[in-house]
Design goal:
Order of helices and strands: HEEHEEEE
Shape: globular
Structural class: alpha+beta
Radius of gyration: 15 Å
Protein name: 3-hydroxyacyl-[acyl-carrier-protein] dehydratase FabZ
CATH topology: Thiol Ester Dehydrase, Chain A
EC number: 4.2.1.59
Helix content: 10-25%
Number of strands: 6
Family: Belongs to the thioester dehydratase family. FabZ subfamily.
CATH class: Alpha Beta
Number of helices: 2
Low-confidence stretches: none
InterPro entries: FabA_FabZ, FabZ, HotDog_dom_sf
Strand order of the largest sheet: 1-2-4-5-6-3
Subcellular location: Cytoplasm
Strand content: 35-45%
Distance between the termini: 35 Å
Length: about 150
């Protein structure tokens, strides 16, 4: 079954808020398999004032964060987890990250993440960000969810 999510459902699942919330909509989600989501990149993003004033480019670390947030949505939806102030989703590894084209204001970054492995609470994902069908970023991400007290 394919699930879609609007911003209201995303806000229920992710603890992130402006300016670090980087997923605007979920187009497709197959539990325990894959997610396809959207980050609309606008000139209003706070990092564009300094990266770079003469040619705004989305920082690679922000692209990876957007992919990680999509991965978190996939994990939370798959596990039926409702996040709260005591749930944190951490990066535990990023492998083979490659940046293949700049992402600029006006672009729509399509976030495609699929589960490669889940073991002992650690998830490994294959992740890509595309603009106009062209790969802008790809990486393998490892993440885990933890309760904090």
């Amino acid at each position: 079954m394919t699930v879609k999510m609007d911003i209201h459902k995303i806000l229920e699942l992710l603890p992130h808020r402006y300016p670090i919330l980087l997923v605007d909509r979920v187009l497709e989600l197959e539990e325990n398999k894959r997610i396809r989501a959207v980050k609309n990149v606008t000139i209003n993003e706070p990092y564009f004032t300094g990266h770079f004033p003469h040619r705004p480019v989305m920082p690679g670390v922000m692209m990876l964060e957007a992919l990680a947030q999509a991965a978190a949505l996939l994990s939370f939806a798959s596990q039926g987890v409702k996040t709260d102030d005591k749930t944190v989703y951490y990066f535990v590894g990023i492998d083979n990250a490659r940046f293949k084209r700049p992402v600029e204001p006006g672009d729509q970054l399509i976030l495609e993440v699929s589960v490669e492995r889940a073991k002992a609470g650690i998830y490994k994902f294959k992740a890509q960000g595309l603009v106009d069908g062209e790969v802008a970023v790809d990486a393998q991400l490892m993440c885990t969810m933890r309760r904090i007290d």
